Amino acid sequence: MSATYRQIPPLTYQRDVLPQPITALSFDPVSDILWSGTNSGHVCANYTPQGLRGVHYPVGGQYAVKKIVATDVNVVACSVTSDGIGAWGKGGVNSWYFKPGDQISTFSNKPPNSSAIAAATVTPELLLLNTQTGAVLRRTSAPSILTHLHYTASQSYFVSGDADGWIRLHDPRDLSSRSHASGAVKAHVSGIQGLETSSTLLYTIGLGERQGRPYPDSLVKMYDLRNMKPLPPIPFSAGPAFITRFPNRPTTLAITSSQGLIQIVDTTNPSTNEFYQLNTPSYVTSVAISPTAGYMAFGDSDGAIHLLSAAEEEAMLPFNGFDGKPIDWPDTVEPLPEIEWSDKTPLNSVGMPYYNHLLLSSWSKDLVPASLYFPPPVKVPQQVLNSIKVNDTIAYATLPKELRGRRNVVASAPKKTGGRFRSGKARHNDSEPVTPTYEYAPDTIPKCYRKVEIEYSKFGVEDFDFGFYNRTAFSGLETHILNSYTNPIVQVMHYTIPIRRLAKSHITTDCPHEHCLLCELGFVARMLEDAQGTNCQASNFCKTVGVLAQMHNAIELIDYGRESVDLNYAHMIQMFHRFLVDRLSTEGNSFPHNPTLLPDAGPADLHSPAPAPITQLLGIDAKNIIICSSCRALREKENMTHLIDMIYPVRKPTNDPAHETDFVSILRNSLLRRTTHKATCQTCKQFATFETRRSICTRDLPPVLAINAAVHNEEAHKFWRDQRRQTFLKPRVELRGQIEGMDDPETVVYELRAMVVQVVSKDAKSHLVALVKVPEAEESQDPEPWFIFNDFLVQNMTEEEALSFPSTWKVPAVLYLERVDLRQRLDFTKLPDKMDPTILCRDTNIAVNRDIRAIKHESLRYEELPRPGTLIAIDAEFVSMQQEETEYRSDGTKKVIRPARLSLARVSVLRGDGPKEGVPFIDDHIHTSEIIVDYLTEFSGIKFGDLDPNMSRYTLTPLKVVYKKLRLLVDSGCIFIGHGLSKDFRIINIFVPPEQVIDTVDLYYLENRQRRLSLRFLTWFVLKENIQTDTHDSIEDALSALKLYKVHLQLEEEGTFDKKLDELYREGRQYNFKPPAPAGAQTNSPVPPSGAGSPVPGQIAMGRGAFLQQAFAPGQYPLNAVATPPFFPIQGHNRHGYGHQNWRNR
């Protein structure tokens, strides 16, 4: 056989109107077939060098075939967008198809003496599959997205290349990377384009970088597989696009460019080269070499397969050099009998097909499931298996406490997906069995850890039944807010009592920062304390996080509400944790007037003021000891840090004692943090290695230890996993410091108080939950004080489950430990604890051009400051900061993905009693630095410029100041009167105890009518006033609610309110519960029924004008200080110019 190749006529398929590029090629090892893959996702068999067209079948997906590997018995292939990988017989019948749940990025060649191939997904994940059945033999995570896999000739390991340009060696026995000195090599800057191996050599081509853009690397790089050391590369100036090794010549490569230039080179003797140029008008898209090297095949973008043959002229050489197995041609179909059709032709003459074997529709018993009922049989809980005992053939175990209850009650049908709403509570059966929170398999995520989402009905988020998810006395936080991923860290801070005390104290001070996380944390803490199990929102805190993150160029902390697989919330929350603690330290620092929280912690220095309070709680005041390894020169450097980032051993040696890898040892090594670096020594003037360690005595360890777990890879997570029924994390740990390189003999005990963990679901999307040892539960002698705070889902759990890390779905992120001996010694008496009430007496305006005529309120005098039980009327207006996100379905229905985000724009508070009853003492427009999407002028009365300090004509006040005023009113025990206050308080982000709220929407409500009345209708019908004609005015609305409350009191005293309320609903139905247009305006309102004259004595008065006829004497007003006309026309007193005494006879 000649060593020189010649080009023979290409293989084309002219039937295609639009030729499909050939994206993959593979020679069959046992038959005279060349398998080709097209850009449309089909595999085609080309028989003999003449190109006889054979079977043609799709491989899944609608795009190009990515790779084909022909084996002795089948053909393995996958496409670019397919959701799996499959194998097909030589006749085109599918043997198996495996779907891993993600797209297949690549798969390897099949080793000669093995029935397994390696495959990679975009998750990224590495799999080992059986080529006969498609079963998964092994599975593990990959360091990055792999683009190439190739078994070496020795089959002892396989090589992977990823999208970042790294090549790694893997052991096929456990898919792990080999542990020699150079386990991974950065071969190319921007990615791998091709891999080939021989027994001892590795060849790669890839992309470099030129002017910041990927560019084909002109070198074929070589590495020694035994030690991964680079060898002299092979230059190829045309830019290598494909490299292919000759099967019969292990050291010979065919290097091909996309323009069709081919170089055949012996890598052991690079001076020996052969060059060929394909006669192709387009570019090359795939390459393959036959097993005997008799043919080289090149697919191009025009759908042609170019062949280089080593056979002599006019010689017919099979692809493999031998005939091989005969080609399976399809059997000839017998022709159908001809039937002459007439009116008398019987239909049974058509006949039925005859089958001599079972049809595919005749399923075997192996394919029929054993049970078609829901749900499948439950597994025995792991807690039961742990305590099981066997006596002869009988196994028995005690039922754990956490599994006691309705364990034999199971669902009879799949539970319908859908939110639980208070409006539909009557249709729900709350007594249905709840799935146990403890799952049975360690890889299955327990129900209480799973992501919970708020569903939205037509009544909004207020209709969602949060109480179904939280039946404890501890409040959860809602999730429909941007940056709500911070909810777990807020819960951790709240239930860390020293930090809670600092935050609550800070809100009583005159903080100069407009955006202050410590203030917002204090407000959330007060809200969570008051709510006692009612769901809350940290909307102001989350908004401040976004503002400060942009101000400090920390945009990686902003969550834009777009979930993706690449979003790692564990890493994100740890970055935010560091940012938050730094902000708390800065914002709470009142140097030099900081109070001392630990007066007896060490020697007192009167000339050294105390640091920031948060630094006194979390600060690790240590010294960095730096030693030169050359001259042993030593120098010290002060080091203050608030957090500990855990550092894990790089590798666990076999002779390591077990205690070096336990939690306490790793935590202590992370605290002392031994590191090395190289620099020039100022003493010996040599470039030497420096050893750095942290030195701190035990007594200086902080009262609260804040830890970032830093579990960023699989190796670090292995330390945390449960082993032999033992948890890595312990409820209490003993720590000791180190002084001058010697261990401090004194030890202190830290107790684990809370932690934030990341929960990774099977679709690789993650979320965060908080596991907290609640102090209030400990005080109430609760045997299990641990609770999980999964946003608005709050549930009790055992300490064992809280500390357990059974599998990879639970990843630690943040831990908080409290020093036991300092818990009672912390002195908070010097912290301020009362808010200055005179803020209600001050003018807090920041508008530059305020119009004196626009001032409608009169601040409180000192003697008017509120006391418990003081009546106040309140109303608020809002603007939209973000539009509602809605998903419209094909059936016309819609689903709210995220509701509109509203922000407080104006709040008005009126005096509810006293000589100035009805006079506002707060009427503040709220300054906001965010972009306003919609001013909602029709409903809020707010216009452009009203919230701008340079343009506003009104009293403009920062949001935090207004919030402090409202917080002071709540703490003072005021009674809030208004209409629809629950929604207002939700958006304001403040919790008011129910006993301090009087809502007229509930006062004037009949439960059996299931309709709540608007303030506008109530004011028109009851008070005979028209409000909200053009826009809403918060003072007008608050005053109307106050009047309605006074009318309610008067009717309750008379004992006629229930009767009047029935009349109100009956009359309101006639007007569709909407007030008609004012007098003189055209209206289509229904005409009241005629013939209804003045009420007869002894009968119930009907109609708008007669609602209060029997309640008040002529001229008597229910509001003694508000200058308003009589609410209804009284007989004989036609003060409003109506022609009839009763409104119904107008």
Structural overview:
The protein has 1146 residues and is of the alpha+beta class. It has 18 helices and 53 strands. A hairpin with a 2-residue loop joins β30 and β31 (394-396).
Provide the gyration radius in Å.
Answer: 39 Å
Main β sheet profile: 8 strands, mixed
Percent range of helical residues: 10-25%
Q: What share of residues are in beta strands?
A: 25-35%
The overall strand count is 53
Compute the number of helices.
18
Structural classification: alpha+beta
Uncertain stretches of 5 or more adjacent residues? 413-417, 426-440, 653-659, 1082-1106, 1108-1146
The mean pLDDT is: 82
State the end-to-end CA separation. 115 Å
What form results from the Cα inertia axes? globular
Topology:
Elements: E1 6-11, E2 22-27, E3 33-38, E4 42-47, E5 52-58, E6 65-70, E7 74-79, E8 85-89, E9 94-98, E10 104-107, E11 116-121, E12 125-130, E13 136-141, E14 146-151, E15 158-162, E16 166-170, E17 184-186, E18 192-197, E19 201-210, E20 213-216, E21 219-224, E22 229-235, E23 242-246, E24 249-256, E25 261-266, E26 269-277, E27 284-289, E28 295-300, E29 305-309, H1 382-386, E30 389-391, E31 394-396, H2 487-494, H3 497-506, H4 517-531, H5 539-551, H6 569-587, H7 613-618, E32 620-628, E33 634-641, E34 643-645, H8 663-672, E35 675-680, E36 687-695, E37 704-708, H9 714-720, E38 732-735, E39 738-739, E40 742-743, E41 748-760, E42 766-773, H10 775-779, E43 786-790, E44 793-797, H11 799-803, E45 810-819, E46 871-882, E47 885-888, E48 894-898, E49 901-911, E50 920-927, H12 937-940, E51 956-958, H13 959-971, E52 975-978, H14 981-988, E53 997-999, H15 1000-1003, H16 1015-1023, H17 1034-1054, H18 1057-1070
Parallel strand pairs: 34-37, 46-52, 50-51, 52-53
Antiparallel strand pairs: 1-29, 2-3, 3-4, 4-5, 6-7, 7-8, 8-9, 10-11, 11-12, 12-13, 14-15, 15-16, 16-17, 18-19, 19-20, 19-21, 21-22, 23-24, 24-25, 25-26, 27-28, 28-29, 30-31, 32-33, 32-36, 35-36, 37-45, 38-41, 39-40, 41-42, 41-45, 42-43, 43-44, 46-49, 47-48, 49-50
Helix pairs in contact: 3-4, 4-5, 16-17
